[in-house]
Amino acid sequence: MDISTGTRASDAERDQIVRLLGRHMADGRIDLAEYDQRVARVYGSATRDDLQLVLSDLPKLSKDSAAQSNPRPRIPVWQRIEGGSWLGVSVLVLIIWAAISIGVGEFTYFWPVWVIGPWGAVLAFRVLTGWESGRGGKRARQ
């Protein structure tokens, strides 16, 4: 990042410094308490010189490590949790249906389709369209 000295820092520059501090913490160069102190200093700084001071004792990070350390998951965490719940309930109702069918001695009406189908269709729609994930037509708050 090219930071000129003597000028006021922007919010984007502060956020980038905080991300760099997060990478240093993940690499073990600073602990959580020091990270918190430095983040407070970053958001309290007014100039680019102050931002330089926060990182002055830490080594510069390479560009290729930046690409590896900040992967963005394709599916948001809450949709992954819902997908796991759907899978767990689907397996459970299939086991119940199979136990009933074995107990009766023949295949019974396949009622799990009414649990698995609609719920799975809604989850698939939300993942494919980006509904409620921040990708599908939501404007950024200013």
Strand content: under 5%
The helicity comes to 55-70%
Inertia-based shape: elongated
Q: Radius of gyration, Cα only, in angstroms?
A: 25 Å
Task: Report the mean per-residue pLDDT as an integer.
Answer: 82
Query: What is the strand tally?
Result: 0
Q: Can you tell me the residue ranges where pLDDT is under 50 for at least 5 consecutive residues?
A: 137-142
Helix-strand makeup class:
mainly alpha
Q: Kindly, what is the distance between the CA atoms of the first and last residues, rounded to a whole number of angstroms?
A: 24 Å
Largest sheet: none
Question: What pattern of helices and strands is seen along the backbone?
Answer: HHHHHH
What is the subunit arrangement here? single chain
Number of helical segments? 6
Tag the structure with descriptive keywords.
single chain, about 140 residues, 6 helices, elongated
Can you describe this structure?
- With 142 residues, the protein is an all-alpha fold.
- The protein contains six helices and no strands.
- Helix 1 packs antiparallel against helix 2 (32-44), helix 1 packs parallel to helix 3 (48-55) and helix 5 (77-104) packs antiparallel against helix 6 (113-129).
How are the secondary structure elements laid out?
Elements: H1 11-27, H2 32-44, H3 48-55, H4 63-69, H5 77-104, H6 113-129
Helix pairs in contact: 1-2, 1-3, 5-6
In short:
With 142 residues, the chain is mainly alpha-helical. It is 63% helix and 0% strand. The longest helix has 28 residues, at 77-104.
